[in-house]
Amino acid sequence: MTAETPTGRPDPRRRRSTAHKLLRDPQAVVTAGLLLFIVAMGLLAPLLASHGPNESSLDHIDAGIGTPDYPLGGDHSGRDIWARLLHSINTSVVSALIGASIALIVGVAAGLVGGYYDRARSATEWTFSLVMTFPGLLLLIVLMPLTGGDFRITMAIFGVLLSPGIYRIVRNQVVGVKNELFVDAARVSGLTDRRILARHVLFAVRGPVIIATAFLCGSSIGVQAGLAFLGVGPATVPSFGSMAAEGFQNLYIAPLQVVWPSLVLGTMTASLVLLGNALRDTLEGATRRPSKVAALKAAKASAVDDASSALLVVQDLAIAYPTPSGELNEVVSGVDLRLEAGETLGLVGESGSGKTQTAFAVLGVLPPEAVITRGSIRLDGRELLGLKESELRGLRGRTIAYIPQEPMSNLDPSATVGSQLVEGLRAASGVSRQEARERVLALLARVGIPDPEHTFGSYPHQISGGMAQRVLIAGAVACRPVLLIADEPTTALDVTVQAEILDLLRDLQEEMGMAVLLVTHNFGVVADICDRIAVMRDGRVVETGTSLEIFREARHPYTRMLLDSVLDEETVRTDPPAAASPMAAVAESAGKEK
Amino acid sequence: MLLYVIRRLVSGLVLAVLVTLITFLLLAPSFDGIVSNRIGIGVTSEAVRALKADMGLDRPVLVQYLDWLSDAVRGDLGVSFFSGEAVGHTVGQHLGVTLSIVVVTLLLTVAVSVTLGVLAASRGGAVDRITQAASLTGHLVPNLLIAIALVYLLAIRLKLLPATGFTPVTEDPAAWARSITIPVIALLVASVAGLTAQVRGTMIDELRKDYVRTLRTRGISTRAVVLRHALRNAAGPALTVLSFEFVALLGGALIVEKVFAIPGFGSYAFDASLQGDVPVIMGITLFAVLLVVTINLAVDLVNGWLNPKARIF
Amino acid sequence: MATPLLEVKDLRLAYPGQGFRARPVEILHGVSLTVGEGETLGLVGESGSGKTTIGRALLGLAEPSGGSVVFAGRDITCLPSKERRALARDIQVVFQDPYTSLNPSLTIGDILSEPLIVQGATAKDARGKVGELLDRVGLPADAAERLPREFSGGQRQRVAIARALAPEPRLIVCDEPVSALDLSTQARVLDLLIDIQRRTGVAYLFISHDLAVVRHISHRVAVLYRGDLVETGPARKITATPEHPYTRRLVLASPVADPVEQERRRAERRRLAAEAAPDVA
After folding, report:
1. Which of A437, B90, B248, C275 is the most exposed place for a label (fewest CB within 10 A)?
2. Whether residues C182 and C80 fall in one domain
């Protein structure tokens, strides 16, 4: 909950209507315009072409382009290619409408019901897994005796075959939304299920369904063309597929005949896919962009006065993230820290203060988009900024180690606890597999895990949060690092477990003589374990001092404000309940202090 | 584990029975047409009725289905109405042709998509942009058009490969490889596009997870973290997509077979369906469903092996 | 003592077990507690103790497998959904996570007027009431036009409190309402809750894992441990002189924000632990 987001406060300007955003997206505008144009051409076919799609004339067999009244020439039966092309558009559009709407109606309805009502889910799941088992195209062919090849009936069946995809999207969304607290809150507010579905659930489904619709139309058009290409359906129905098939037969004589239907068909499906993608970007935010895992943009370490013999010296460190507009937004602006060997420094601050970012910078594991704009991080006199990933790797685990906040998400869910620790130990120290295994088992025992052998072979989801945190501590101290960076190591744990973990950390520190940089927002934890404290606010260190100094005579007003906010032992509620019952009043009067 | 497999197999069989039953019921109304098809045009309705009785098509539909089912269980799928050949044998033969194309495509899809997806997700930059553009192009064009374009380019224009026809692998492996090259490429484009996008997406999500950072802080190389940990966790959703692609490939193969005049499952099914050859249609449906059930089971088993949390056995 | 506003008796709750032929897992093993009119009962427990489940059972979001819940003299343990909905007038909730408890696509005004309209208010009346509600939780009136994502965690929690206040309920279940907030925000939201209680006489069932927070707002405190209520009493007594060994452990494990005092407390906790397991020491 206290994780720091580098993106900063939401920008009110981002509140734009979806339609407005779509209109500003050239990809959406161009593809939608193209589609509208094609559809309009189809609708106006009787006006634009001088022949019917099935009118054949012996004089115009394989007529060339530009033949009067036959703008694109004639096919091998002497029919007007231009007219057939325009009428084929209508076939495609009808196919898309039927296929997509059937898939949407069936999929959305079943998805809402199956997602919202737990009791109905197994039935819908089963039905749709049955539908998914039909190999679509094959089934449509197999059912030709039933459909007579009529493309409308065929597309209706295809719509049903497409519906599992929609069902899954809707069901997943609904299940996700249903467990959201705001749906619970709506229920507590007295809303009926129908109203909750309509108002709170359907909105979440809206985006993905709109996107999927574009793809549904695309695949309906593609399948209809494919079937017609195979020869399903009467020859009198003009279709890109049958035109392509005929053109394909004629490939050696008139190669262009296959090009026209392919061109229009390709344009339609491509526009639908591109439109779908544009919709996705607009409705779901920009696509996830990867960036090189290890690469970190860092400015050359600034020259700094080198008078310190401390273990870790951070000077004038600044970290920034690019904003959507391309500028850099600083989240850490000139942090100075100093940590002596064997000492514990508490880095304290509220969410967004930049404390975790500072810790990640020392470890060299900032997110790839982060930029270190200036500053210096020196460990034992050696500058860390600007080191290559391979050089940093040599330090990690052996010299600097890390304990994360959330124990569960920091273990690979599909590798056993033991194998993860062994891998880390071997990477950092290069010992044999057998030796690594023995050392890991000893470590697990050392961090207080009752049955090391059993935990070694367990998967993360099979152990408790407290155990997982002990495992992570074992992983961190496996190579006796000089500096341990602990990022809110007890925040996710229960108080009683927190006390045990803090004890463990203190013991390990004494035993191994490590320095600890402890990032936390909890002054109780700081009071328990830290020698010195640095208070951070808005990317800067506002005050540094020994624990006693900070707690007893803090100078900076922000520190004092924070300490005043701590709910200490003395804050006990003493006023009686508003409509006090006599007994409670008596009980409360026993301790009147505030 | 064994219990789980058995349970899944049983439910798969139930599914196969249901699908064939539905197919049979859907076909039943067209039996009249089928019979007159077989006799030819212009016969008396009496002759049709006689033949129908002769073929056993006048009995209640359910009885006919059960009859078919009990034979099928014993491995007898009947004979074709028209050619008189044993359905089980011919379906198997044609399916083999199609499967050889689909399986090769599937294997190549996995190899290409995983490589591209992982590279795009972990390198970013130019690799990623090229991958995304390629994957989008694959989505854009129906594979019917890709097949036509390839035939025109590779076979007719450049004369590099045979345009049509098929050589069984048992006859001449080299000729077989040449004969399926264009069909496989035609199918590959779309399936690689789909799977690459999936692998890339899940890998990006996976690489942003906390455990990736933590493993890195232990001194484990980025490469090992990506390949040994992130990829394994990203494989689950990708496998699910792969099982859908298998079904899609079966469909795509039908069209590609037609373009390249390959005597596969598709043309066989098409002819049978056109004639209303009920035993053949039923045989094809049964084979297809069993195939899909098997693939889904295999995917679930691999998924369970990869992801201990999903282990239901 | 007069009839309490809420009386929970021997509440049991079990979830169906995971997997084949698994037995149901009982989360609550017969919990009894009362909340008086205008009173705050703090419910403390660690993760998995069942504290959130109690709240959900009261709200009708989880179905008890035994025991009874009596609200204002009426048994509400298992109400038909229509009557349960009508109860929204009297029992409301504030959840832990202010980020997921507000529908991200509705404006604050819509979020606040929804419960009012459901209870039969006209759209116009609801609008007017929204302004009043915002004022009561210390948010500017123009907040009604904005979306949840434009607000910080503390502000969102104020919106959630305003939503709970909308039908003027007699009891609000507060499920860890300040755990997701920063220290300084935490104190301000707690003070707001206390202030509202003084003015309206609403009762709170205040669920939290944090003893310090509970102590700050509660008249009485109940300690929950693995589905059983181990100790109930006035806030001061529970935190100063706990009787049950678990409560004692809990109190000693909560660190104090003072290095000297904390060192003393740590020593005492370790001594206690050593006494409990002499063979280990």
Report:
1. C275
2. yes
Structural domains counted in chain B: 2
Cβ contacts below 8 Å, chain A against chain C, sum to 228
Q: Where are the alpha helices (DSSP H) in A179-201?
A: 181-188, 193-196
Q: Are C58 and C173 in contact (CB under 8 A)?
A: yes
- Nearest by CB: A396 against B26, B200, B219: B219
Tell me, what amino acid is at A424? G
Same domain, C3 and C71: yes
- For C235, the closest of A494, A496, A573 (CB atoms) is A573
The distance of C141 to chain A (nearest Cα, Å) reads 16
Contacts of A5 in chain B (CB under 8 A): none
Token code pair at residue B146? 């890709």
State the residue range of the domain holding C260: 244-281
pTM of the complete model: 0.82
Using CB atoms, pick whichever of A496, A569, A584 lies closest to residue C39: A584
Per-residue model confidence as pLDDT tens digits over A3-53: 333 333 444 444 456 677 778 888 889 999 999 999 999 999 888 888 888
**ipTM of the complex in this document:** 0.89
Say yes or no for a CB contact (<8 Å) between B145 and A141.
no
A461 contacts in chain B (CB < 8 Å): 308-309
What are all long-range contacts of A387-391, with beta carbons under 8 Å and residues at least 24 apart?
A389/A294, A389/A295, A389/A364, A389/B222
Are C66 and C35 part of one and the same domain?
A: yes
Q: What percent of chain A has pLDDT over 70?
A: 89
Specify if C8 maps to a domain: yes
Task: Yes or no: say if A296 and A372 are a contact pair by the CB < 8 Å rule.
Answer: yes
Distance CA A21, CA A279 (A): 10
pLDDT band per the 50, 70, 90 thresholds, residue A589: very low
**CATH number for the domain including B231?**
1.10.3720.10
B266–A contact, CB cutoff 8 A: yes
Is the domain of C117 the same as that of C219?
no
B181 lies in which domain range? 93-275
C238-267 residues touching A, CB cutoff 8 A: 239-240, 249-250, 252-262, 266
